[in-house]
Amino acid sequence: THDVVFTDRPKTAAGSAKRLESYEYIRREEVLALLGDLYRGGAGASRVVVLKDYLSTVSLNVITRMVMGKKYLEKEVRDEAGAVITTPDEFKWMIDELFLLNGVLNIGDSIPWLDWMDLQGYIKRMKKLSKMFDRFLEHVVDEHSERRRRQGESFVVKDMVDVLLQFASDPGLEVKLNREGVKAFTQDLIAGGTESSAVTVEWALSELLKKPEVLAKATEELDRVVGRGRWVTEKDMSSLPYVDAIVKETMRLHPVAPMLVPRLSREDTSINGYDIPAGTRVLVMVWSIGRDPELWEAPEEFMPERFFGSRLDVKGQDYELLPFGSGRRMCPGYSLGLKVIQVSLANLLHGFTWRLPDGVELSMEEIFGLSTPRKYPLEAVVEPKLPAHLYAEA
């Protein structure tokens, strides 16, 4: 109702559904690589695996290929003079640090006169990260701009940075996009797309390990719809309502951003009898909405069945379930995030059996910040259950 009041920047299109579909081959290749890596990394020998490591890699590879045109976890990035811009370890550290620092409660944000003291050391860390990330993004933009200049008339858009640079060079664009905007958008796409997928899939499998009967129903649906002779594709997802319900239920209980991204009121307004002055920071607590007993029956229970026969969706129209937000400031990559989460989870359930190591009781503690990952990474014994040649192809 008050969306316009609480948005502090105009909507900018960074892509389209059609372009998203054109990148399906990237998502397919990286999910297959995940399954092959998991098989070779321990599942083939029924060893314990730390799932988050694999999920973060596939998410990061999908995002960087779609956004910047290549992977950044395989080798060092160097400039034309041969100087190292970033290493795979540095790149992963930057992503982790970016998410951590975006979620911390910095005292100076709430008590401005204390800001200069940097009591928690966050400002110092932010400045270091900002310098490193800016150097990397400058290289990415330069590299894309040079390819565009070099190819001239024959230039073809390959990735999202190309799309953003095309927007930036359009003189007729109502909302101007400059170089800093291109870098900021690129950073948002990388960070937002990486953490959300990995965290959600890890929570989904955690909940399923605590509810074997739900896991059995999902496996039955996959065997019936897909069969055991191939992997699951994005086109299968519309025929897998139970897997879809598991994803929605996971997002209800474990939203990636428990308080969404902060908003700022543009003008004085009044909501439910409360006067909200212009310039007020506003947080939407979707974590609490998803556990509200007035909205949900047995809210602490993991019950995917609650979404059967329900029109509730995660697209921002149903205010009981807002994992990606709503309105003009809704997550621009929600469609991509959903696709990666659904097809990753479906294939992990389809290709492997899952159980906890002997004698292990699963903790469901979470870390509360910008995102809510598990406090302790999920460790599970994973065994392949499809024909061996499928893993060899992955």
UniProtKB/TrEMBL annotation:
InterPro entries: Cyt_P450 (IPR001128), Cyt_P450_CS (IPR017972), Cyt_P450_E_grp-I (IPR002401), Cyt_P450_sf (IPR036396). Pfam families: p450. One of its GO terms (molecular function) is oxidoreductase activity, acting on paired donors, with incorporation or reduction of molecular oxygen. CDD domains: CYP71_clan. It comes from the Eukaryota. Heme binds at residue 331. The keyword Metal-binding applies. Keywords: Heme, Iron, Membrane, Metal-binding, Monooxygenase, Oxidoreductase, Transmembrane, Transmembrane helix. GO terms for biological process: secondary metabolite biosynthetic process. SUPFAM superfamilies: Cytochrome P450. Its cofactor is heme. Belongs to the cytochrome P450 family. PANTHER family: CYTOCHROME P450 98A9, OS09G0441700 PROTEIN. This is Flavonoid 3'-monooxygenase. It comes from Aegilops tauschii subsp. strangulata (Goatgrass).
